[in-house]
Design brief:
Structural class: mainly alpha
Helix content: over 70%
Order of helices and strands: HHH
Distance between the termini: 63 Å
Oligomer: single chain
Length: 65
């Protein structure tokens, strides 16, 4: 018996609770990803402000001749 077949046999209120828990776990993953991106951006901004990295001009890099 697969997971879906087992879940369908759970009483409706418990299925709703299970679905909410599953959705919450996805939201939690998104929060982890978002935090990782924010941390990376802050790290890069600090690197630029500390003079350890330099910004590149997009237009100059990708200008067509």
């Amino acid at each position: 018996m697969n997971l879906l077949e087992q879940a369908i046999k759970i009483p409706p209120k418990e299925r709703v609770a299970l679905a909410e828990l599953i959705l919450a776990s996805i939201d939690n993953e998104n929060e982890k990803i978002n935090k990782a991106w924010v941390d990376e951006v802050q790290k890069r901004m600090k690197s630029v402000s500390d003079g350890q990295s330099a910004l590149l001009d997009f237009n100059k890099l990708y200008a067509q001749d």
